[in-house]
Amino acid sequence: MFLGSIACKWGILFAVKSLKKVKKRNKNHELGALVLSTSDPLLKSKLSHLAFSKWRNEKLPIGVYDPPSRPARPPKPELVSPKEIPAPKDSGMPLNAYMLHNLAHVELNAIDLAWDTVVRFSPFCEILGEGFFADFAHVADDESRHFAWCSQRLDELGFRYGDMPAHNLLWRECEKSSDDVAARLAVIPLVQEARGLDAGPRLVQKLVGFGDNKTSKIVARIADEEVAHVAVGVYWFVSVCQKMGRAPCSTFKDLLTEYKVELKGPFNYSARDEAGIPRDWYDKSSTNKHGEVTKPDTTEKLSMIYGRLASIIAMENENASLNKPAE
After folding, report:
1. Structure pTM?
2. Which of 36, 56, 79, 85 has a Cα at 20 to 30 A from 129?
């Protein structure tokens, strides 16, 4: 425990020193690339938070930077195919730690997914606008906090991230969309993160049933904050479609077909509605009494979504702490 504490403190000091080396003339995307190139999970999480804070507080310019081909990863967990992930009874972990480890893996990948989006599409800054990069840098900051909560709770349960194998499915999905910002938005926020909205309540109930109320509260808070991340994806996907002169609904469906991405239920309609994903984008049964696909007022809905997102961001700026999980 003592040596682990020293290692953690050394890692944080190294992260701070790394950021101090990045002078004001450097750009947000260079900070993002630094996070992507960091392999230690806790250091990556801390560095992500520091990078976002430095960029926001010092108002660094966006810049253009090439991302690494794939993010740096620690020796553990071993990355295997989804079919090779052990079942809970074979994992050597109790059910609550097993589920929390899986969530920690998702959150660590989410840090890299958000920063990769910031860095990879930096050449299109003038077209997309600074708000695009500000939103996804903020998402990366949220994900770093979520991973820290999961890691801290795993430690309290007597385990660490890396104690069981994990899959690389999330990053493979990210690589599919490396050359198309519309595809990236469709595949990651509107599919992968939206699946988190579907799974969140079920995970919370399983943890409550297991008797781990503390972990269930952490997961519930993470799930609630993920709504805003999906809302960011909806907002910018529609914005990109408008710039291309294409209908968002049909473009979304075409991209999923092109990139061979499958939509799977059951869907958490209330969370998806709150995030602003129109039901006819993902649910074939979403038709009106005349058999026509429903078409919500996208402009009005997006205005409501972005208003809610702004409120969440303001609240997080005041109250969020990287090191304090939900009580």
Report:
1. 0.85
2. 36
